[in-house]
Amino acid sequence: MKKQILLLAITFFCAHLIIAQNINKTEIEKITSTLIDYIEGSTNGQPKRLKAAFHPNLNLYYIKEGELKTWSGKEYINDTEEGKPTGETGKIINIDYENDIAVAKVQISHPNNTPYIDYFMLTRIKGKWTIIHKMFTKRIDD
After folding, report:
1. Measuring CA to CA, which residue among 74, 89, 75 is closest to residue 42?
2. End-to-end CA distance of the chain
């Protein structure tokens, strides 16, 4: 009887872990999809994909000449020319999330320039992950 209870407990525990891993993978896949919309939209001249990835109130933040600068997400999308690739490529460096919030790091590289590093804050609204905040800087190699 004790062996049966132990076996049942182990089975329950393993099933719980498998379900938890599937939930986590699904959320990571959804976050990744939003980040891919950003990367592809930005590098391939696809403003509709940027609009799909960004929250309407998103701003981009960066430092220029020692001062914090703000660029509205709407202006960023408007500055993206439909069908005009930038020659850049992007890759996701990492994603971390808890419940309905996430942070992510992306690198955008151009063959002739220093890569940019983007840090994003995302949130899940009505089941969809959206970028609500972006900061960017140039990569500094050590």
Report:
1. 89
2. 61
Q: What is the mean pLDDT of residues 17-42?
A: 81
User: What's the predicted TM-score (pTM) here?
Assistant: 0.80
Structure tokens at 142: 């050590």
CA distance 14 to 110: 45
Break the chain down into helix, strand, coil percent, rounded to 5. 40, 40, 20
Q: Are 21 and 28 in contact (CB under 8 A)?
A: no
Predicted confidence at residue 113, as pLDDT, reads 86
The number of angstroms, rounded, from the C-alpha of 34 to the middle of its chain's C-alpha atoms is 6
Residue 94 to residue 140: CA distance in whole angstroms: 18
DSSP state of 54: B
Q: Is 118 helix (H, G, I), strand (E, B) or coil?
A: strand
Q: How far apart are CA 115 and CA 55, in angstroms?
A: 25
